[in-house]
Amino acid sequence: MAYRPARFPGSRRVLAADAVARYDLRRTMMARLLASNPALSLLVLVGDVEMEELDLEPHGGAEQVSASFTRPEPEVHGLVIVGSLQVDRAVQHPRSASGLSLYVLGDLKARNVAISGLELVVRGDLRVSEVFAGAGPSGGARLDGDVSAKLLVSDAFPMLVGGGLKAPVLENGRARIGVVDGPTVREARGEVPPALVLDQTVLEGSDEFSWPRLKAAVAAGRPTLTADYLTGRTNLESMRELRRLEAEIDTVLAEHRYARAGELLRKARALGAPRAETGLKLADAIYRVHHGTGSREALAEALELLDEALGPKPDAAAVMAHPQALLQRAAILLQLREHDDEAFEQAWRDCSLAAVTMPAQERAGIAGLMGQWLFTRHRYDECVPYLRQALSAEPQDGAQHGRLARALWMLDREAEALPHATQSLELNPADNRMWYIRGKCQQVLGDPDDARLDLSTYLDMHPDDDLAVEALIVIELDAGQTDQALETALQFIEQHPESDGAPARFGRLLHLRGRYDLAVPLLRRAMQVQPHDNTIVRDLAVALNETGHDHTGLDTALRRVEIDPGGDHLAYLRAEVNLALSDPNAAEGDLEEYLRRFPEAARALASLAGIRLLQLRPGDAEKLLAQAREIAPDDYYIETVAEKAGFTKQIDLSAATAAPAPAAEPAPAEAERPPVTQYSFRDAGFRRS
């Protein structure tokens, strides 16, 4: 096909073989093509050339009509400029995928260069005022001198720079640029993010470089770079520092040095690295460093980064790109906000999304995290299948064995829990609470000897655990060792007086076993520690009633509490309990308080009258009894008090009332009051060795 001389004025056609030898083009791809295609030809322009635009379309100057009447001529491979070339606008081939190869034996200067599928050789320097871009693996550029440009783009296009590279390289993940450095060639990596320097019209989406769009923009003369970048307002030094940091980050992450990676990632974010991607990497580094240590401050920072990058409802792209980040957020929420309902819902969504996006082999780990969430929220029945699935993939996970053992034990499935408790103790001995769990399982399954051994082992490590002591007491009571059980309870109470709940716990245990005489002293001590605990006071009242003694006032108070449980009668019941325990001094204040609120309580008035008699204040007693008789005439309990001088001593009530001015007589001091008997373990027949 003939070419018009007007396309390249002054050019002449020569055989490529002659040009290779004449202009020393032996190290070009064209020279290698000659072996299979010796008829290749070139167009040659001698001298410096200046043109407005250079169109390298392979058939751009053919006369289509006349060509059909002429014989075919050898294919033209390219254009040789024997001198320097200056192009005011662009070197390009907009209408075809590839163009004529270009060989410039001097310098090349242009505003833009956009080429693909051809060979470019520049013997001198290459100076491009805006963009020098090459695309595709076919062809390539050999640039022997210095290369300067506002931006250098290699979209899988091979480039070899023999001089100095004075152009920032676009970061697109496909750059193939080598720079000769002495005897070696070093790789020039991308350092400029597309979204930071390229005009939006040449981007695919928000931040992906598009070769077809850039090629079209160059052909139309539209801007390819942002105004800030063209005017120098974009800080390239910061970008270069950012690329250096990112290279170091990749290295330290590959070496699993996550603490150092965290420091570098923070610097990268400060220099303008992509916030979402860098934030996820930083969150991952923080998580790996601090997940085991439990640092709440560090994990809170990681959670904030994950929330910023993922949002409450991550879109599909974020889920597919970072499924591991979803699991990390769920795990951090479990550590920081395990009792928060919103945190649970967020973690459950994240785990569910991760389960459908991650490989099948990862799903057991996801199930383990979901099971751990359910276990933490005491949803034991629901967590068991998830924990079993996790253990099917990781049978040596001692922590998961421990959670499953606890869940099954809480569900009263001791036979299933026992082997997992044993596995947990073998694989995760740090979880020493498992000695207690296994001991309780063995106790229920009828193995008291092994249960006692495990519980004793646990108590060696946690001597202040009243639940474990209670379990030992039960074993001793089941074996008929009542004295030993009581000795165990008393030793614990003496050694750990700070354990407020122990006396009540042990007292109720003896109460349920029918040992009311032994339960009373323990429940009494519990009431002294927690006088406003309604359950303790009622348990003690019932135990006192079951001892077989006549406590009419106590019966009355118990019935009052049972008939009107919300009527605030606890003070009355507590007072009658203390009277039954022969401790009127402790009962006095409660009765006075109760009668201020319920002045018509006749039997409470009689009980307080009995205390006044014991205090040798018969005048006060007479008034109280008179009030009581007026409210409830002929009441048996009131008349009984009137006939007695006290609970253990007869008092002549008429003689007492005839005494001069009895009401003015001061109450005796505490030390002068007659002693009262107290319920004790000795009264119950127990002797400590």
Automatic annotation (TrEMBL):
TPR repeat ranges? Answer: 500-533
The record's SUPFAM superfamilies line, in alphabetical order, gives: TPR-like
| Gene3D superfamilies in UniProt | Tetratricopeptide repeat domain
Keywords of the record, alphabetical order, are: Repeat, TPR repeat
| Alphabetical list of InterPro entries matching this protein | TPR-like_helical_dom_sf, TPR_rpt, Ycf3
The parts of the chain that form a coiled coil are none
Specify residue ranges for compositional bias: Low complexity: 657-669
Q: Disordered: where is this region?
A: 657-689
From the Swiss-Prot or TrEMBL record, give the protein name: Tetratricopeptide repeat protein
The species this protein was found in? Kineosporia babensis
